[in-house]
Model the fold of this input.
Amino acid sequence: MPRSFALSALLLAVAVPVAAQRKDAGDELGREIDARMELVMPKVVAWRRDIHQHPELGNREVRTSKLVADHLRSLGLEVQTGIAHTGVVGILRGGKPGGVVALRADMDALPVTEQVDLPFKSTVRTQYNGMDVGVMHACGHDNHVAIMMGVAEVLAGMKAKIPGTVKFIFQPAEEGPPAGEDGGAPMMVKEGVLENPRPSAIFGLHVWPGPLGSLNYRAGGAMAAADGLEIIVKGRQTHGAIPWGGVDPIVVAAQIVLGLQTIASRQIDLTAAPAIITVGMIQGGNRGNIIPDSVVMVGTIRTFDEKMRKEIHERVTRTAEEIAKSAGATARVTIPSSAASFVTYNDPALTEKMAPTLKRTAGEGGLIVINPVTGSEDFPSYTQTIPGLFYFLGGLPKGADPTTAARNHSPYFFVDEAALPVGVRSMANLALDYLKSLGTGKTADR
Ligand SMILES: [Zn+2]
Ligand SMILES: [Zn+2]
Done:
């Protein structure tokens, strides 16, 4: 993204932008959300800037989590802290009987040195895996935290009218915990955030460089399952001038790279879902005239369908092993799973039910159905247990070129705070519309 946005103009414009003033606010509760949101927006903007200026890496969100917990307590919520290291859960029990819904925000930043010229630019540095690094909210989680603090304040203000319970889940380490530590969504679930009370659905959002104030979503596989890939090809060392004296693992590795590409292009049904197999690193040998003993290949596999994911893993293993075998070498294939190994899957029935809410609450950019996103999330750790909907909030400043705008994880990543009201509005309405859809009967525990 161009580095020279008229940020000062943006910064002055804390007044609630157009999106908040849209006419279609839905029913009475929807109108009350809008009115309360306008009051809370200056705080949301201030929280976002504060959190942006004080980013913390995964499992180290001490300051952020205290800010969240203090705020939730001040609103009168039941607050649990120290979950999965720094996680916070706030429970808002409405004045009317009903079901339970969960909202999730992630709190961690990345080891990136900020290059955006902002008055609240991060200058924080810390140690990460033994290295001195800059820390930046380069994935925009500062916005997620501020939005959800705002949603909590809006909904707490109308507590008496809420039919059911809203559970606010503030999660550490979405980007993965530091080496040797547990963390993130899987650990939150393990530590019971989906119990007592148990929500029957969960919603989460992510900022990205989409049209300003737009909401972007798709039903079914929305974000990829990301699996690591490691292949060790073992040949037999020989002189570079006498290849017949050994088994060349470099040529075998080259054949494997090409063979793997035929899996996505020739062997799976690409009309059902896309798939990506990338070898991003090959290491072998140290001299031009020595054929080495072995080669290590490291890559990533992205899939959008659980059945296809398993099938691709089998084909990757078979392809590498059989190609190696044909040359008299061996290939040992490892596909380690992690918190990112699940597809971010938007439950089709839930998505269909909530789409009108997204449409109503989207800002000027409107509601946009998107293609699958090949990035991954640890949000599916929640949706392994309960249905969920994960959507995107466009934060690209007006006039910025989407084709060259910095993407998430860039040191130039920037979210226009004019998108924040749409975040608050959409999440608060999703929670209430969902609870209303459950009614006050015994559907509560469904
Ligand atoms: Zn990220
Ligand atoms: Zn993120």
User: Anything to note?
Assistant: The first helix runs from residue 7 to 12. Residues 139, 141, 174, 206 surround zinc ion (ligand 2) (CB under 6 Å). DSSP finds ten helices and 18 strands in the chain.
